[in-house]
Amino acid sequence: MKDSHKLIIDNVSRFIDLTELEKQKYISLLTEVKVKRRAYLMQAGEITKYEYFITKGCLKAYTLDVDGVPHISMFAVEDYWTGDIASFITKQPSRYFIKATEDSELLGISRANYDLLFQEIPKFERFYRILYQRSLISYIRRSNHGISLTAEERYIEFKKKYPNIVNRITQKDLAGYIGITPEFMSKIISKVNRM
Amino acid sequence: MKDSHKLIIDNVSRFIDLTELEKQKYISLLTEVKVKRRAYLMQAGEITKYEYFITKGCLKAYTLDVDGVPHISMFAVEDYWTGDIASFITKQPSRYFIKATEDSELLGISRANYDLLFQEIPKFERFYRILYQRSLISYIRRSNHGISLTAEERYIEFKKKYPNIVNRITQKDLAGYIGITPEFMSKIISKVNRM
DNA sequence: GAAAAAAAATGAACTAGTTTAAGACTTTTA
DNA sequence: TAAAAGTCTTAAACTAGTTCATTTTTTTTC
Predict the structure, then answer these.
(1) Is there contact between A183 and strand C, defined as CB under 7 Å from any strand atom?
(2) In this complex, is the C-beta atom of B146 within 8 Å of any C-beta atom belonging to chain A?
(3) Tell me, what CATH number does A15's domain have?
């Protein structure tokens, strides 16, 4: 089996057990996608056709506000899932751009195959139930931190939680994620490093 | 069938179809709970034993920061779900208080019955998959708004999204949800009303 | 229904984070 | 490998939101 397929099967197998046949069936529903550094996986205005699992590389998802300032909603590296679940599910145009910050490789599942998957292997309802449950727990935490922590505290949290991501992204993008300007991010970092 | 049971069955039936027997089985796994205004459904430090569906009333969930300032993570009224999913799933002590702001009635499912439910009626994997998916979509939006909108914009959003909640809660609690002080909330409201 | 307690409004002094601008450093491109 | 473009740093002036203190209004309690 390919390395990328092994990675996604291992990811799924954390929550459900699949037979060999089911693994093959699942893999047959996936599409391989490569995105070069600085290329877009998707852009605002499109209706998202796929949800993606990353097997290699790093991507950022962001919206642009009325002044054209980017607000980064997520970074994603190997073994993470990415996409715009709201657009994928509701079939409404997305407000997100997803751009590769390194040459990346992904496995995508189309909306049609996603629906088919639940019919063919109902166990996947459980997989996604648990996956969404866990994502939900981290977004609840993040939405609380956004309103209750200072920018400096959010930066310290991020570094602690994603030590493997912090040195793969620019300071400017991190500022867009934390919700502050790059200038203030620069101040915070030099302050935290001095402590 | 009791009104409260009818309400929860209708809620579940939006995503999955249940036979009469399954409905009865599901209801048998639920526990009725009443909470008086200003009483706690749960408190920080406890390990959450239940997830709740509200059949009557209104509750708020909040954490206290290091200075003892409350940050409200959610309001919930009839036909909403509430609880601390992180503590419920991980069996770690919760950091949340959930307090009734009106006399309230709820249906709780214990962790043991929640696990049993998936064995007895696997269709519920699908129900929770969709429920968590939808919650996830709204928390992703909220966590982005927390970092990309001003307090005034967040207030206007809240009023638009939850017109049925805004006049059942105090301005002070709304401030705790928006992530600002009650004083600044007061200023925003008088400004927005003047517009 | 009077007294007490809590919520809301207002204002002045303050602070976390923004804006604008300019220079130094790093990466990309031709 | 030079020039162009993007990123990072620093600093001064500014603004969104806080803090603290006081008064008014509303709600709760006995």
Answers:
(1) yes
(2) yes
(3) 2.60.120.10
Domain presence at residue A38: yes
CA of B187 to nearest chain A CA: how many angstroms apart?
18
Segments forming the whole domain that contains residue B71: 3-122
Q: Say which of B132, B140, B141 has its CB closest to residue A129.
A: B132
For residue A84, the chain B residue with the least C-alpha distance is: B137
For residue B152, being part of any structural domain is answered with: no
* Cβ contact A150 with chain C strand, < 7 A: yes
Q: Check CB contact of B181 with chain A, cutoff 8 Å.
A: no
Span A62-98, pLDDT tens digits? 999 888 899 999 999 999 999 999 999 999 999 999 9
- Residue A185 in domain: no
Q: What pLDDT digit, counting tens, does each position of A88-124 carry?
A: 999 999 999 999 999 999 999 999 999 999 999 999 9
* A159 located within any domain: no
β A58-64/A97-100 pair status: antiparallel
- Total tally of structural domains belonging to chain B: 1
